[in-house]
Amino acid sequence: MAKIFSAPPFSLLLFARLSALTVAVLVLTWALHFKISFIPHHSSQEDLIYAVLHPVLMVIGFILISGEAILVHRWLPGSRNLKKSVHLCLQGVALSCGIFGIWNKFHGEDGIVANFFSLHSWMGLICVSLFGAQWLIGFLSFWHRGEIRTIRVRVLPWHVFLGLYTYGLAVVTAETGLLEKLTFLQTKGDVLKRGTESMVVNSLGLCLALLSGVVIFAAVSPKHQIPQTKIIYSNNKCLTS
């Protein structure tokens, strides 16, 4: 008899990893091969390093690692405490990358105020703030031994919802950043609309959207296998009772 798989199959997790790898390659290509697009020509080498680190840390460090942390409960074997430990550590690394990535953006000569004017910057600060609060609440709720079980059960659905919401918000924030940067470069005439850099940035945006869909779908899919024969048996039992 056929079985209904309620856990994400191996192919889904593999597709998520391939999507993440593609995103990483694209953002590194953009940051390293087209690095002159990130700052004016008269800026120093130090400013160039800070400018290039921002997209790398926010995409690879923040989005990709936090996505992998979400998938930990789906693929990592072992006890629940092991999975929670790895999940917590990966989310902590992602949070650190997010904070450092924002600090890099605000480290320029113009200061914080000059870089805090766009929807992208506002969403970025809100996203990292929510992520930090979510990480702290998750740590206190699921790792504090004095916490009673009923409170953990009540907090868990909100923890999962806010985690997925924050992850989705991070991807949307990255998309607004890509759109803002590419529009600015094209308006100035530094990048052609049909040029190679435009293709790389647009492909990066598409792959980020695809990756977020795969990660969220894997996260909300039920975990366990339920044989179809058991489902039919349960339905027949309900009908005869």
Automatic annotation (TrEMBL):
Do you know which Pfam families this protein is assigned to? Answer: Cytochrom_B561 (PF03188)
Keyword Glycosyltransferase applies: no
Which chain regions cross the lipid bilayer? Answer: 12-32, 52-73, 85-103, 123-143, 155-179, 199-220
A GO molecular function held by the record: transmembrane ascorbate ferrireductase activity
- Tell me which cofactor or cofactors this protein depends on: heme b
- Known catalysed reaction(s)? Fe(3+)(out) + L-ascorbate(in) = monodehydro-L-ascorbate radical(in) + Fe(2+)(out) + H(+)
State its location(s).
Answer: Membrane
E.C. number(s) listed in UniProt: 7.2.1.3
Membrane topology, as annotated, equals: Multi-pass membrane protein
Query: GO CC terms for this protein?
Result: membrane
Q: What is this protein called?
A: ascorbate ferrireductase (transmembrane)
Q: Which organism is it from?
A: Escallonia herrerae
